[in-house]
Amino acid sequence: MDANQMKRAAVIGAGTMGHGIAHVLASSGIETRLYDLQEAAVEQGLGAVRANLAKGVEKGKLSAAERDAALARLSGTVKFEEAIAAVDVVIEAVPEKLELKQQIFESLGRRLGPEVLLATNTSSLSITRIANVTAHPERVVGMHFFNPVHIMKLLEVVETPRSSPAAVQAALDLGVRLGKDPIRVADAPGFASSRLGIAIGLEAIRMVEAGVASPADIDKAMKLGYGFPMGPLELTDIVGLDVRLSIAEYLERELGPRFAPPALLRDKVLRGELGKKSGQGFYAWTK
Questions:
Q1: HSE on the CB side for 178, CA within 13 Å?
Q2: Residue 287 has what pLDDT?
Q3: In this prediction, what percent of the chain has a pLDDT beyond 70?
Q4: Which of 72, 104, 105, 191 holds its CA 20 to 30 A away from the CA of 10?
Q5: How many CB atoms within 10 Å of residue 31?
Q6: Cα–Cα distance between 120 and 93 in angstroms, integer?
Q7: In Å, what is the CA distance from 11 to each residue of 56, 124, 197, 199?
């Protein structure tokens, strides 16, 4: 498992995180296949990568030749076997449902040899539970990227008690190859970033609920007073209120009532106010 020798990768799931991961893999010189169940999802993911690369050229962050080379290394498919054929690494980025991820990793374990690195992009679920259904669980790690993937530098590499040193090192080295600055954390609920981020985000929502201050003023307090690049409520809108609710519910089950979701968060999700993706969350968003 030498990250610098990896030539082919598969990304399972073409959503926001999946297409972002495919973007950075292809840009780093790795032939990348983006897989999803529906052609429309694959095409939407590939289109997002093309748009982000074009924006990079416009801003002078990469050349047209670099854009074209990355696109030449990127393809999409709805055929699972085609996606994972002869790969060196698979990164899963499907919705945060443990049973779904376990199904995928059980299938990957049966189809791929022990030398293939298997990584999940989950932001909070137990990597150990995902790895336990997989043949050779020692090659399973978490690789938690941050949105937007092609811009954010942080990568959490999450190791289970069964992760081999070689797999963990390969994930760390791959992160560096992708231009990330990785941190190494143990498999604990919420890891490092989600656990702290959710705690701050939930308290900010409780403050809105109690009428302490407006969302804009709470966010301004954290940006100007603590140097946050983005306020916790704006970040919640970008991540998605439904995603934050799901993570909070999981952490409440695992860590106790301090992570209980505020009623305001539940109410907004029920009303379809999911943040930027729906046009309304704690802020109104326009395309």
A1: 32
A2: 63
A3: 100
A4: 191
A5: 18
A6: 6
A7: 22, 19, 26, 30
Joined together, the tokens standing for residue 258 give 């301090």
Q: Which residues pair with 34 in a beta bridge?
A: 11, 76
Say whether 270 sits in a helix, a strand or coil. helix
Q: What would the mean pLDDT of 53-62 be, rounded to a whole number?
A: 94
Are 265 and 248 spatial neighbours (Cβ–Cβ below 8 Å)?
yes
Structure tokens at 151: 């811009």
Task: Kindly state the average pLDDT of the residues 76-101.
Answer: 95
Environment class of 272 (CB within 10 Å of its CB; exposed 0-12, middle 13-18, buried 19+): exposed
DSSP 3-state of 183: strand
Specify the pairing of strand 74-77 against strand 154-159.
unpaired
Question: Taking 90 as the threshold, does the pLDDT of residue 110 lie above it?
Answer: yes
Question: Does residue 185 contact residue 62 with C-beta atoms inside 8 Å?
Answer: no
Q: Which tokens belong to 159?
A: 């190791």
- Report CA-CA distances (Å) from 37 to 42, 51, 181: 8, 22, 31
Q: Would you tell me which CATH number, out of the four given (3.40.50.300, 1.20.1260.10, 1.10.1040.10, 1.10.10.10), belongs to the domain 193-270? A: 1.10.1040.10
Domain range list for the chain: 3-186, 193-270
Q: How far apart (Å, rounded) are the C-alpha atoms in residues 232 and 223?
A: 9
Instruction: Decide: 53 and 95 in contact? Cβ < 8 Å.
Output: no
User: How far is it between the farthest Cα atoms of the chain?
Assistant: 56
Using CA atoms of 54, 60, 61, 66 in order, give the dihedral in degrees to the nearest 10.
60
Q: Tens digit of pLDDT for each residue in 199-237?
A: 999 999 999 999 999 999 999 999 999 999 999 999 999
